């Protein structure tokens, strides 16, 4: 089935309609930039109850973007503020607290991924400048100095002026373009699950470091009946990953309670568990002829700092700004000048964030007694140094560096 929108040549041809791809389509549309969004997934599957227990920390800067593109009001009721972050080494004395001053606002807010998807999908469905093509397989990608196109398996051909790779870590568009990728595997997995627990979390996010890796508890909004909820991100070695994933609920709860040491009281239930291999990857460049990479297609970082989506949204903000400013000068969206500006702006910032989170992982992932002492020494130093604490909090809020307009209040 073809419609008129399919046959139009649009400004952007966005391959991948996940959170980052859809945020780009919406942000661009609000500036009068049209797009085709092609995604293989079925949106009904992605938004059904219980499909995904994952939750994401949305930084202050990302929240400004949601406000600016008009989805904040929908999301507001599902937000859980992160008022402070407590960092400890195996819950031993000497914890590090990041608590902003009252006038500085929160360190971010937690949202269920399902709600983020619904907010973006519903806004995109109403936007005439977005032609959303779900459940579609791409069989051919074309790029030339004149434009770009994607051929679908049902024979449809969608055309644009700039191709965007937004398919995540395993981006086929990036690989086909021959963009090389530097990556290393941490030989660890993140196990993610929703928890209900007896004590309120008090809007504190916990990052508890163990020799095998960090164990994070992120505050979620209480259920309507007052049940307390949090999201668990537990890093285990690749060797232990399968065993932990296979544990029955009761045994799994016993293992996590042992590591929580009562900070949230008793764990009363655990939701569906998912696990992901951890790795770091960074591409040599994020642009090519009429092609821009956004989100995990260009850089995948360790989820220890929960910054993956926020980093992708910074790509979105920068790219949209570059395109809007380019259009004022009469430049075509795929003009090399636009791409060069985007490359320069985002290349360094995303690499610095990736490096910082990788550094954290290496400091916190060393499994020796000495590492534990070094960690506590380091945490004590940060605790006493307001400038360092402010730096970490600004990073968490996503407000450091050269920020795109869309991510400002």
Automatic annotation (TrEMBL):
Keywords: FAD, Flavoprotein, Membrane, Monooxygenase, Oxidoreductase, Transmembrane, Transmembrane helix, Ubiquinone
Protein name as it appears in the record: Ubiquinone biosynthesis protein UbiH
Pfam families hit by this protein: FAD_binding_3
Domain named FAD-binding: residues: 11-343
Provenance organism: Erythrobacter longus
Family that this chain belongs to: Belongs to the UbiH/COQ6 family.
GO biological process per UniProt: ubiquinone biosynthetic process
Keyword Transcription regulation: no
């Amino acid at each position: 089935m073809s419609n008129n929108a399919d046959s139009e040549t649009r400004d952007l041809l966005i391959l991948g309609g996940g959170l980052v791809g859809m945020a780009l389509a919406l942000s661009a549309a609000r500036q009068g930039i049209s797009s085709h969004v092609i995604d293989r997934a079925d949106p009904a599957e992605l938004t059904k109850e219980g499909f995904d227990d994952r939750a994401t920390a949305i930084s202050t800067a990302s929240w400004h973007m949601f406000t600016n593109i008009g989805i904040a009001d929908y999301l507001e009721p599902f937000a859980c503020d992160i008022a402070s972050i407590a960092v400890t080494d195996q819950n031993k004395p000497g914890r590090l607290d990041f608590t902003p001053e009252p006038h500085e606002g929160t360190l971010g807010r937690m949202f269920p991924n399902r709600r983020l998807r619904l907010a973006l999908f519903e806004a995109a469905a109403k936007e005439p400048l977005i032609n959303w093509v779900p459940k579609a397989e791409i069989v051919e990608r074309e790029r030339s100095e004149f434009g770009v196109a994607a051929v679908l398996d049902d024979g449809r051909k969608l055309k644009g002026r700039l191709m965007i790779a937004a398919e995540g870590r395993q981006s086929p568009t990036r690989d086909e373009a021959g963009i090389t990728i530097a990556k290393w595997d941490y030989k660890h997995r993140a196990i993610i699950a929703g928890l209900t627990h007896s004590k309120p979390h008090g809007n504190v996010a916990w990052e508890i470091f163990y020799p095998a890796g960090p164990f994070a508890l992120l505050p979620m909004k209480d259920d309507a009946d007052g049940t307390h909820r949090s999201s668990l991100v537990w890093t285990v070695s690749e060797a232990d990953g399968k065993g932990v994933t296979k544990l029955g609920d009761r045994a799994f709860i016993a293992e996590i309670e042992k590591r929580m040491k009562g900070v949230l009281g008793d764990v009363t239930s655990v939701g569906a568990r998912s696990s992901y291999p951890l790795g770091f990857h960074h591409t040599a460049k994020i642009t090519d002829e009429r092609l821009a990479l956004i989100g995990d297609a260009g850089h995948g970082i360790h989820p220890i700092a929960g910054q993956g989506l926020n980093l992708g949204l910074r790509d979105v903000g920068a790219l949209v700004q570059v395109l809007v400013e380019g259009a004022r000068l009469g430049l075509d969206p795929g003009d090399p000048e636009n791409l060069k500006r985007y490359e320069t702006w985002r290349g360094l910032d995303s690499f610095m964030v990736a490096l910082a989170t990788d550094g954290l992982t290496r400091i916190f992932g060393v499994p020796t007694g000495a590492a534990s002492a070094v960690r506590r020494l380091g945490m004590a130093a940060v605790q006493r140094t307001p400038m360092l604490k402010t730096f970490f909090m600004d990073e968490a809020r996503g407000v450091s560096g050269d920020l795109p307009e869309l991510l400002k209040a």
